[in-house]
Design a protein that fits this description.
Layout: H1 14-20, E1 24-30, E2 33-40, E3 46-51, E4 76-78, E5 84-87, E6 94-97, E7 104-105, E8 112-119, E9 122-129, E10 136-142, E11 156-161, E12 164-170, E13 176-182, E14 193-198, E15 204-207, E16 213-219, E17 222-227, E18 234-241, E19 244-251, E20 271-273, E21 279-285, E22 287-293, E23 299-302, E24 308-316, E25 319-325, E26 332-337, E27 343-348, E28 361-367, E29 370-377, E30 394-398, H2 412-418, E31 423-428, H3 437-440, H4 450-464, E32 473-478, H5 480-491, E33 497-501, H6 507-513, H7 521-525, H8 533-539, E34 552-557, H9 565-578, E35 582-587, H10 597-615
Helix pairs in contact: 1-10, 4-5
């Protein structure tokens, strides 16, 4: 039935999307069970731990969430005996929960913890103390008997300093520990090393790497890790004699794809060694695939349902647990038998209805700096068509980071728009991961230029191909994506409305106010201060707010420590002073990213109503 684009009736309601899209946070084989972390939007985004038996392992009000490096990750782990170890969200202390018991603290109040890993009964973690001057972080081992809850000195410190740490890994004999470390003046995808030390003190060493990830001991004399020798994160083996490299490192099955990703959170796993010498690994080139690499270096792709942001969370014999998103399935957790190929969906992961959610189309457009990759989601509603000869409005999505990427995954959040007759174009602008180091470094020193050029090129490509109404293309982004939204509106010429979720508006204020992890991020994206201050001023959307002449929706978390509310409020005031149509909404209790169901619902409904006003359609109730 022909209906105006944007006014199509849809079964994808904001409330349903909020309740049906929990975020999965790691998975483990625990005895005969499988456990996984899962957000509960209806409870303010609390992270619980569930079991394949149907039981909730971590009951309310407890929540397993880490704030290390602000983005957290690795907030829980468990042993075969059914004991859960988790970081309690409120106080950031590590707790122990035995079957049938109550959570008991294992660490003293104060520092935050994350990246938990249990090996042979020994509990490893990344610790962060923001009360010290300078701030201190460490790789630590936490006694599981509770002795450190009252005596912080009972915690064993394997490495510490004012820099950053991730991915602790004990050697099989327990005598040495490896980890990832990097200095605060660089981001981990720019420069990160592998540290190795003898447990109990003594010898320590740092391997010369470019941007290393996830050390894993193959045996007591060999270490596996990923690094970027040229354009791609590639697996490597290196022999270890004590804490010293033995011989050169050897690349494993290098291809034009990444085994690795920007180290934003502490819990991701891109590969796992198997006991029989094989390695199961993720490879990313826009989308993900999973391969098994044999001892001879031959890689065999295996069929898995997911192809986006895949994490190999655990291994038991030839079985693996993977989480991820997919172009034809909902986000989920699966158990995969690497020998038989049998796949069992554990949580979520069901096929989506292709009539309502057809696979995204990969597109590449020519940009000023080279090819621009994106995924297009055309309007899709089996019960509706648009006006004869008419073209649909589109929203260009801009991911955050900016060192991140999207994968063209099926998404109820995107279907919220496409089912109503509004197309979505999800852009991996220059600076995105997943396409190699050269593509990622295209943004170096040019944030606010390359990203804007690329989203403009993508939007114009849509219109020139006759896919979108050139007069009704909006742009929407969060955090760094919000920066690109506002910067593109300043540039003008393609977008008739903009939606910024907790977007950056003032670079100098961001450099002064943001948290430790990203404190020096702008050095690479824009330039160092004070030498580049004029560039910071020139590129900030706040400086050029008088050039924004289209409607703007600003959505902001009140408790955001990464992009504080002052950023959105500054651009709000500038738009108000000039009488530009705008709306500003601040959500109490929300930080950097919206977690509460009520916030998710309100934000989606406001965005749809805003687009209706901007594009001249009436959304169906």
């Amino acid at each position: 039935m022909p209906q105006p684009f944007g006014s199509w009736p849809s079964p994808f309601h904001a409330a349903d999307i909020a309740s049906s899209a929990p975020r999965l946070d790691g998975a483990r084989f625990v005895g005969d069970e499988i456990w996984w972390g899962e957000s509960v939007p209806a409870e303010g985004g609390r992270i619980t731990v569930r079991s394949s038996t149907g039981a909730e392992v971590l009951p309310a009000p407890w929540s397993a969430r880490s704030r290390v490096h602000e983005y957290g990750g690795g907030a829980w782990t468990a042993g075969a005996d059914g004991i859960l170890y988790f970081v309690e969200a409120r106080g950031q202390r590590v707790h122990r929960l035995a079957p049938g018991g109550e959570p008991e603290p294992l660490t003293a109040p104060g520092p935050a913890h994350g990246g938990l890993r249990l090996q042979d009964g020994r509990l490893l973690a990344v610790r962060e103390d923001l009360t010290a001057d300078p701030h201190q972080r460490a790789i630590v081992e936490i006694p599981t008997d509770g002795s450190a809850a009252d005596d912080p000195t009972a915690v064993i410190v394997h490495a510490q300093g004012p820099g950053f740490f991730a991915h602790p890994a004990l050697s099989p004999d327990g005598s040495r520990i490896a980890w990832v470390q990097w200095n605060g003046d660089r981001m981990p995808w720019e420069s990160a090393q592998i540290g190795i030390a003898r447990v109990g003190g003594g010898e320590a060493n740092v391997l010369p790497t470019r941007a290393a990830l996830q050390p894993e001991w193959v045996d007591d004399d060999e270490l596996l890790y990923s690094d970027i020798p040229d354009d791609r994160w590639t697996l490597h083996r290196i022999g270890i004699d004590g804490v010293t490299p033995r011989g050169p490192r050897v690349p494993i099955a290098p291809v034009d794809a990444d085994t690795g990703y920007g180290l934003w959170v502490l819990g991701n796993r891109w590969y796992q060694p198997l006991a029989d010498g094989r390695i199961v690994a993720v490879r990313t080139n826009g989308r993900d695939e999973v391969v098994v690499i044999g001892g001879d270096g031959d890689a065999r792709a295996i069929e898995v349902p997911c192809d986006g942001h895949v994490s190999i969370d655990d291994i038991a014999g030839a079985r693996m647990l993977i989480t991820g998103t997919g172009s034809t399935v909902a986000p989920g957790l699966w158990s995969v038998d690497l020998d038989s190929g049998a796949i069992t969906a554990i949580s979520g992961g069901g096929p989506v209805n292709s009539d309502w959610m057809p696979p995204a189309q990969r597109i590449v457009v020519d940009g000023a700096h080279g090819p621009v990759h994106a995924f297009a989601y055309a309007p899709a509603n089996p019960e509706m068509t648009g006006p004869v000869g008419g073209l649909p409005p589109y929203v260009v999505f801009v991911h955050g980071g900016p060192t991140a990427h999207v994968t063209g995954a099926a998404s109820a959040g995107i279907a919220f728009y496409t089912s109503r007759g509004i197309g979505v174009l999800d852009v991996n602008y220059g600076g995105s991961t997943g396409y190699g180091r050269a593509y990622r470094e295209r943004l170096d020193g040019k944030w606010g230029l390359v990203d804007v050029d690329d989203v403009l090129a993508a939007a114009r490509g849509l219109a020139e191909a006759g896919l979108a109404d050139a007069e009704r293309i909006a742009i929407r982004g969060s955090s760094a994506g919000g920066w690109t939204v506002l910067s593109a509106l300043v540039r003008g010429g393609a977008f008739s409305a903009g939606i910024s979720r907790y977007g950056v508006t003032d670079l100098r204020a961001l450099a002064a106010d943001t948290h430790d992890f990203e404190k020096e991020y702008l050095n690479g994206l824009v330039g160092p201060l004070p030498e580049s201050e004029s560039v910071y001023i020139e590129r900030s959307p706040l400086t050029n707010a008088d050039r924004i002449d289209v409607p703007v929706l600003l959505l902001q978390g009140e408790d955001d420590p990464v992009v504080p509310p002052s950023q959105s409020e500054a651009i709000r005031d500038a738009l108000a002073q000039r009488g530009i149509d705008h709306e500003y909404v601040v959500y109490p209790g929300e930080g950097h990213g919206f977690r509460s169901a009520s916030t998710i619902v309100d934000a989606l409904e406001r965005e749809l109503a805003f687009l209706g006003r901007a594009f001249g359609f009436e959304p169906r109730p």
